[in-house]
Design brief:
about 160 residues, seven-stranded parallel β-sheet, 6 helices
Length: about 160
């Protein structure tokens, strides 16, 4: 089990890490859906990851927009600009973004955002076959549905739920 907390800015990342979060998720200034958060510049992201890693914690970067064609070159450039930062995972929701992350950051750990609304074991198996290591399940699922999903998906596919 892992306690994963949101980090809307560098200060919140440090507080979450200091108070026991095993990992945090955050967004850059673009390509994330947390519009109300300040989010991270490239420099702040690098500082936050260094801080979290020094404390033995992880940082997951959300790239969970539903990308339009004009977003893809910008996202490709962004991935190049952050390639020096040792992020622990990318959280995505769009299949095109998934393909771009796999191309630009080979070997990166990929998590599927709750925005993809995964509600059944066949969808979970599909995403797993595409290289997704963890699925953040749809928020609408009951505990019984989550249990059934766990029983019907590969053991190496991690499931995450909001609580």
């Amino acid at each position: 089990m892992e306690l994963l907390a949101p980090a809307g800015d560098l200060e919140k990342l440090k507080i979450a890490v200091d108070y026991g979060a095993d990992a945090v998720y955050c967004a850059g200034e673009e390509f994330g859906l947390r519009a109300g958060a300040k989010n991270f510049t490239v420099e702040q992201l690098a500082e936050g990851v260094a801080y979290a890693h020094a404390m033995g914690r992880k940082v997951h970067l959300t790239l969970n927009i539903l990308a339009h064609n004009e977003d893809l070159p910008l996202l490709s450039d962004y991935l190049k600009r952050i390639s020096h930062i040792p992020l622990d995972a990318f959280i995505i929701s769009d299949p095109g973004v998934l393909e771009l992350v796999k191309e630009r950051a080979p070997g990166a750990e990929i998590h599927l955002s709750t925005q993809a609304n995964t509600t059944n074991h066949l969808a979970a198996a599909f995403w797993h076959s595409q290289g997704v290591r963890r699925i953040v399940l749809a928020r609408e699922l009951s505990l019984a549905e989550i249990r059934e999903l766990r029983e019907r998906t590969p053991e190496d596919l991690e499931l995450e739920a909001f609580v």
